[in-house]
Amino acid sequence: MKTKVIFSCQNCGHQSAKWLGRCPDCSSWNSFVEEDFIEPKLTAKTDSSRINEFYISEPILLKDIENKEEMRIKTGILELDRVLGGGVVKGAVTLLGGDPGIGKSTLSLQISAQLAGLGIKILYVSAEESIQQTKLRSERLNISSSENIYIVNQTNLSQILEYIKKVKPNAVFIDSIQVIFNPDISSSPGSVGQVRECSNTLTRLAKAQGISMFIIGHVTKEGMIAGPRVLEHIVDTVLYFEGERYSSYRILRAVKNRFGSTNEIGVFQMGSSGLEEVLNPSRIFLAQRPKNSSGSVVTSVLEGTRPLLLEIQALVSRSAFGYASRKAEGFDYNRLNMLIAVLEKKLGLHLENDDVFINVVGGIKVDDPSCDLAVAMVIISSFKEKIIKDNAVLIGEIGLAAEIRNVAQLPLRIKEAQKLGFTQCLVPKDNLSPEDKFDIEVTPVRNIQEAMEVVFNN
Ligand code: TYD
Ligand code: MG
Question: Which of 75, 90, 322, 340 is the one with CA 20 to 30 A from 277?
């Protein structure tokens, strides 16, 4: 077979017949690498023949299709099952991404042990670590005597396929996809071409044989898995494992899920014997909250179906260089700038000569705009050295006119605050219906000015 070459962007997978300095698709520089060109016709043919082989060939009535609930296997790790949408789906491919050292291999081994305990046969392809290393890790996790787990240290895809044929596992873990290579392709492991081809093959196999496949992938500095778009399109579910490397909390988040919601998060804590579930994260995230100190506030955000109380901290300090800098950890940078602009314009706060730092405690990243009110108030708190009431929780989105706007699922958030012993909630006006009753003081506020009158202690 005549081999043609093609240049593909290692960041997004864009292909070009000639080398390019800058990717026209994702605009990254110097990202093109020469790779073997794989005839699309070939893959298309195998795909369609596979589909005929393994899927229903005749159209059938939608109402006649049986809903097979047993297709889902609950791992028993509640935080994981919820993120997956109820458990591991038979024949589904899950991509588990995250920074190196965050705990992907640890989590994978723990999932393996849970599944193995349910009588499910596992093949764990430990491609980065030797089988001795994996054994040591399993001893640390107290799962070394697990039955049903087969481990192999192999990076060659055709060998891995052989092992799958031989062992006939129900679930396969590939740790990690970046070191797996298909010997028929000359590009190096980890390149977009290899990652795409290997994942494609593994996905087809998973679908054809009903194997639950877990593909582990490292995330690049820019926060993307090598060949991100290609990979994310191939698999059914994409989970990201995130958290500060030097904090022990880890958040598992679904960013794509064909079998469930993508808003759910799972919280874990890395301990001396692996990852432990954190079933009541609010309590933990608030554990080290400073008392009677300016620049600290609590808000109630919604992650999927679960309300979560979070501490948000701000530090506003005189800028050293005459050029104010703004930094946000766990909160959207542009949104922070917007809130600062609202505070300057609508409340006459002079923040132009001050640095503003925002930190969401616990390594969580919040997208929920309902924490705007807390962020704005905590900036004011630090700027004016005023302490926000210890027992208050602030909830509300802020609009450009400094008005406080409604948020979704408010009663759920208030109940979480009540559960953790807070005594007052600031909420958007008209967000509650008259029949909502709580054992906590609920104070509706219309704008930032009204909120300021209520929350400051001094
Ligand atoms: P690992 O699962 O190897 O990360 P990844 O596969 O994402 O690269 O996790 C590595 C880190 O976790 C390492 O710094 C050691 C730590 N760790 C613990 O703290 N406790 C444990 O029980 C285990 C197994 C690992
Ligand atoms: Mg690993």
Answer: 90
